[in-house]
Amino acid sequence: xxxxxxxxxxxxxxxxxxxxxxxxxxxFEVTIVERAKSLxxxxxxxxxxxxxxxxxxxxxxxxxxxxxxxxEIGLQFVNRNNGVEAEFPIEGSNSFTSEAEILRGDLVxxxxxxxxxxVQYIFGKYITAIDQGIDxxxxxxxxxxxxxxxxxxxxxxVRSTTRQLIFGDEPELKFTGLYNAWYTIPRIERDTxxxxxxxxxxxxxxxxxPDNHGTIRASFSFLSDDKSYLTQSDSGQKKVLKAKxxxxxxxxxxxxxxxxxxxxVYFDGISQVHASRWFDGRAGMIGDAAYCPTPLTGMGxxxxxxxxxxxxxxxxxxxxxxxxxxxxxxxxxxxxxxxQKLPPGVPWLAHPKSKLGVSVVNTAxxxxxxxxxxxxxxxxxxxxxxxxxxxxxxxxx
Length: 397
What we know:
Blueprint: E1 6-10, H1 15-25, E2 29-34, E3 45-47, H2 50-59, H3 62-67, E4 74-78, E5 84-89, E6 101-103, H4 104-113, E7 120-123, E8 127-132, E9 137-141, E10 146-149, E11 151-154, H5 161-167, E12 172-186, E13 195-200, E14 204-210, E15 215-223, H6 234-245, H7 252-260, E16 266-274, E17 279-280, E18 283-285, H8 288-291, H9 300-317, H10 321-339, H11 355-368, H12 371-380
Parallel strand pairs: 1-2, 1-11, 2-7, 4-13, 11-18
Antiparallel strand pairs: 3-6, 4-5, 8-9, 9-10, 12-15, 12-16, 13-14, 14-15, 17-18
Helix pairs in contact: 1-9, 2-9, 6-7, 9-10
C-alpha cells in the first residue's frame, strides 16, 4: 500500500534516522537530508529509558547501546576542593546514571549503521524552500536542486529551520532562563569513572562526566534572563562562558582554558518547544523540532525515539496521511505534555545564588544519598518497572 510513497526527513540525529528505520521497514522510500557534511558525532550523554528502551529493543539495537555504555559508575556531588559531599552509584534506587547511558555520537553511529543500506542520506545540504501541492510537496535544497516527495518531516532539532519554513513563528520556544555549554576536554589523572557535579555560587553548575573514548564530557550551566547571548558569534559566546566561569572555583581554570582551543563547544539557551499543531498538509515535525522537553527532563531521547516509532506505524496503517497524522497526535500529545511538565523549582533550585544556597544543595544531596533514604528508596522501587513518567502504549503495527 505504501511501497511507493516517498518521504523526506530533515535531520540525521536521533529522531530522523529512527523514523527512517521504521518507514523503510514498512516499505516507504526514505531520504534523509543533513546540513552537516558528515554525521555530527559530538555531544553529551543520552539516556534511553522506559518506552524508548522498548523501541530500541524492537529495532534490535538495545544490546549495541548497552555495549556502548559510557562506563560511568554513578554521580558524586563535590565541593570546591573536590571533596565528595554525596554519592549516587549506578546500582542505587536513586541513581542519576542509567545502564543505557550512551554518548549522543555513539547512538547516532548505531542508528546510521542500521539505516544506511535502506535509507538515502544526503549530507551537506539543507532545505531552503517548500511548495506544497495537493498530491505532493516540492522541496528546494541549498544547492538549488528541487525534488518532489509525498511527505516531509522535520527532525532537525530545537532550532529547526525546516520548522520555520513549514510553520513560521507559530510554534513557541519557551526559554527556561538557563544557559548550558557542552564540550569535550582531555582526561587527566584526577578524573575517575564517577560523574562529578559541582554547584558554585552565582547560579552556576559544572558537571564532568567520563566517556568511553578516553576523554571527559564537560557541562557548564548558569541562570540568566539575557537572551542576547543566543545571537552572539561563537567568539562572543566563548567570552560569555569565560566571564561566567570566572570565580566559580573547582575546575574553573581547566574549563576556561579548554574553551579557546575547542571547536565543538555547543552553547544554547535551554528552551522547550510548544506547538499547537505538528502537521500542516503533507509536512510535519517530530522530536526536538516539535516538542523539545529540554535536557532537564532527561526524556528528550525517549520522546524522539518513541515519536518516530509511532509516526511511522500510523503512516504504515493508514491510506491517507491526514488520518495517520491525526492518530499519531492523539497518541503522542498526552505523553509529550506529561513529560514537558517540569518539577517545581526547576532549574532554579539546582542553581542557587548564594554560598548558603550551595550549602543547602549539597546538604540535601547528602541526605538523599544517605543509608536511610536508600533503604526507603529500595522499598518503593521495582526492578521490573523501568520508569513511570514515560509510560505510553506502544502498539505493534
